[in-house]
Amino acid sequence: MRIRGLVVALSLAAVAACSESASGPTTPSAAPTTAVFVGAGDIATCGTTGSAATAALLDRQPGTVFAAGDNAYQNGSEQEYFDCYGPTWGRHRSRTRPVPGNHEYQTPGAIGYFSYFGSLAGPGNLGYYAYTLGAWQMIALNSEVDVSAGSAQAAWLKDQLAATTVGACTAAYWHRPFVSSGPHGDNVDMRDLFEILYDAGVEFLVVGHDHIYERFDRLDASGRPDPVRGIREFIVGTGGAPLTGPVRVRSGSQMQATTWGIIRFDLSPGSYRWQFIAADQSFSDSGFEMCH
């Protein structure tokens, strides 16, 4: 009887091992209810090595990938997506939820971007959409079309946030930062969307545009620190395009770095962890926060 029990136990262990192998890579530190959200913006330029280095980091990460705009230089054409983005980040296309950047719109209507990503980029070539990731609500927005308080996008965002399940945590991402210490600086036209997010209690915002990594304190809709209700902004324009650096460190900025890399978020019910992973291992930044 003991032998039979041992055989059954070994069989169950083998099944569990096969199931784990079939499901792909796992992260020991992540609880079963934790969802992984990982990526960067400002990614692929043909003839440079940056996007290959960051794509290699993605190869070792599970979860949903985001591309935060300016994903294929210089004009976001479909050919540039296939020639420059495709050989690197393109191998993760099926698990990528992107947003467009200003370079995508150098091709009229960002048609190269929408053609390449198809339904992964949301409905109707709008460039904004929402989805659920684990216990979290994820809001992908388009900073390159009308972002004013009276825009169709703002109305959609208010409706989407109003319909969010009570108690769920929410994160957002778009391309151009609300505040930045980089060469492009603040984008004051993004204030209206940021304020909508702030009023709804959104936890964090991920952006690109400036080719740096920067982490801000929790901020209110005026860009001032608000440790209670504020939104934490992460600039991750480090996906592979030529790097820049901070020009003037803005109030509320807590960390800056100039290196290629990706950021990983572990999204759990009621909390999240972040970790910036540099391609050359020269820098790291990590932390943990509870949702509002």
Give the gist of this structure.
The chain has 292 residues and is of the alpha/beta class.
* Biggest sheet features: 7 strands, mixed
Straight-line distance between termini: 54 Å
CATH architecture assignment: 4-Layer Sandwich
Helix content: 10-25%
Number of strands: 13
How much of the sequence lies in strands comes to 25-35%
- CATH domain class: Alpha Beta
The Cα radius of gyration reads 20 Å
Description:
The protein is of the alpha/beta class and 292 residues long. It has helices spanning 2-22, 50-58, 78-85, 111-117, 152-162, 191-199, and strands at residues 35-40, 64-68, 96-99, 129-133, 136-140, 169-173, 204-207, 213-219, 231-236, 253-257, 261-268, 271-278, 284-290. Helix 3 packs across helix 4. It is globular.
